[in-house]
Specification:
Structural class: alpha/beta
Largest sheet: 8 strands, mixed
Shape: elongated
Radius of gyration: 21 Å
Low-confidence stretches: none
Number of helices: 13
Mean pLDDT: 89
Distance between the termini: 16 Å
Order of helices and strands: HHHHHHEHEHEHEHEHEHEEH
Strand content: 5-15%
Number of strands: 8
Oligomer: single chain
Length: about 300
């Protein structure tokens, strides 16, 4: 199965949440009842109030001009792509060209979002593209997290810098940078402990890690990737706001899009925060974490072909 097929399959719940309401709108026209139903479906998909208002306004405008069913779909497509295209970036491999090695990526996020797994999948991809890659087990809070990354390190045959559980995560990050410089590493991926975005002391610890990384290598971290779980809906937007304020997030990794009808949260975050969406995940395999493509994403949640 190709990536577009996996994406379409992964976003099936979000697509189905919108399909019936949109089809009734096309059949009955934009009367108050169908518009209200469409609004409810869009909101339940967590597109966000601002995006929903924009979509409804576009639908009303097109309907007033006697638009066909396909015209309406195209209008909604364009509306969503206007929000998403500005946050689409070139593949992360291209970012590596913007700074001399080692290129440092700091992965952050709350507990249970798939942060360590996403980091390992990205590391495997970068290694397969020819980059000398190093993993750093900066989540010293949970012994299981260190072991999880060790398992991945062994599986994908990449070196890992680790300390004992309870060690200072900033010290582990510092040692990781030092090792990378000594070994001629191209990319360093630093895992961090999951932390609630509302816990001030834990967010301060994350700031410390970032400061120490910058001291070890001026200009680093070159990317601060925030991993978000799409299944939590609007709470993901709150997480993105507070992590961005705390550490200056440079890109998003949206996971578990296959397990929810709330995939529209990606659109809501793009509309409000304008943070680049670097990677999206629609499954467990390495191939299910891919670069974000605005056109493919919109097509997956609202196909132009009604039979799709």
């Amino acid at each position: 199965m190709g990536w577009l097929d996996r994406l379409g399959q992964g976003l099936a719940k979000t697509r189905e949440a919108l399909r019936s309401s949109f089809e009734r709108l096309i059949e009955a026209g934009p009367d108050p009842a169908t518009m209200e139903e469409l609004e409810a479906a869009l909101l339940s998909s967590d597109l966000g109030v601002r995006v929903v208002d924009r979509v409804l306004g576009r639908v009303r405008g097109e309907s007033g001009r006697g638009a066909t069913a396909r015209d309406l779909r195209i209008a909604v497509h364009r509306c969503l792509k206007e929000v998403l295209e500005p946050v689409q970036e070139l593949p992360i491999e291209r970012s590596l060209e913007q700074a001399p090695p080692p290129f440092v990526i700091l992965m952050v996020g709350v507990n249970g979002v798939g942060k360590t797994t996403s980091l390992a999948k990205l590391a495997q991809r970068l290694s397969q593209s020819g980059k000398k890659t190093l993993l750093v087990a900066g989540d010293t809070f949970r012994a299981a997290a260190i072991e999880q990354l060790q398992v991945w390190s062994d599986r994908i045959n990449l070196p890992l810098i680790r300390h004992q559980p309870g060690a200072d995560p900033a010290a582990v990050a510092y040692d990781g940078i030092a090792a990378a410089k000594a070994r001629g590493i191209d990319v360093v991926l630093i895992d961090t402990a999951g932390r609630l975005h509302t816990k001030t002391n834990l967010m301060e610890e994350l700031r410390k890690i970032k400061r120490v990384v910058a001291q070890a290598l001026p200009g680093a971290p070159h990317e601060v990737l925030l991993v978000l779980d799409a299944t939590v809906g609007q709470n993901a937007l709150a997480q993105a706001r507070q992590f961005h304020e705390a550490v200056g997030v440079t890109g998003l990794v949206i996971t578990k899009l296959d397990g929810t009808a709330r995939g529209g949260i990606l659109v809501a975050i793009a509309e409000e925060l304008k943070i680049p969406v670097r990677l999206i995940g629609v499954g467990e395999s390495v191939e299910d974490l891919q670069d974000f493509d605005a056109d493919a994403f919109v097509q997956a949640i609202l196909p132009l072909n009604p039979s799709a």
